[in-house]
Each structure stands twice: as structure tokens, then as C-alpha cells.
Design brief:
single chain; mainly alpha; 3 helices
Length: 75
């Protein structure tokens, strides 16, 4: 076996760890989006849908309370 070579199934030695460029590439973070955006479009769509749903629910509750306000006083 050559110097610095590893047997199959064995942990890398200090001499061989990190010496190959492809190993270093595996631990690098992915490049940032070219537009500088930090969230993928799907995340933005989900947040917009969640906020829209919350506003619709709050609006519906406000309309129901305004409509039946006099009848709810006795509760």
C-alpha cells in the first residue's frame, strides 16, 4: 500500500485528510444567490400566504364581532 493511502473502510489518516481539493469543496458553503437574495422564492411564497391567511381570518373575526356586537353583550 502506498504512503498516505487508506485501506477501504478505515478512517482517513492525518497525512491524507484534506489533501484532496474535492474534500475541501465538500465542506464549503454553497455560493450566494447572484441577486443577493437570502430566501428561496418558495419561502417567500409561503410567508406571503401565511400572512394573507392571518389577515383574512382576523378580518372575518372583526366583521363578525362588528355585526353581532349588540347580541354578544349578554355573554
Amino acid at each position: 500500500m502506498a504512503v498516505g493511502a487508506r485501506a477501504p473502510g478505515h478512517a482517513p489518516t492525518a497525512q491524507s485528510s484534506g489533501s484532496r481539493p474535492e474534500c475541501r469543496k465538500a465542506f464549503r458553503r454553497p455560493p450566494a444567490d447572484r441577486t443577493g437574495a437570502t430566501s428561496p422564492p418558495q419561502t417567500v411564497i409561503i410567508w406571503v400566504a401565511a400572512v394573507t391567511g392571518a389577515v383574512l381570518i382576523a378580518g372575518t373575526i372583526a366583521i363578525v364581532i362588528a355585526k353581532y356586537n349588540g347580541k354578544l353583550n349578554g355573554l
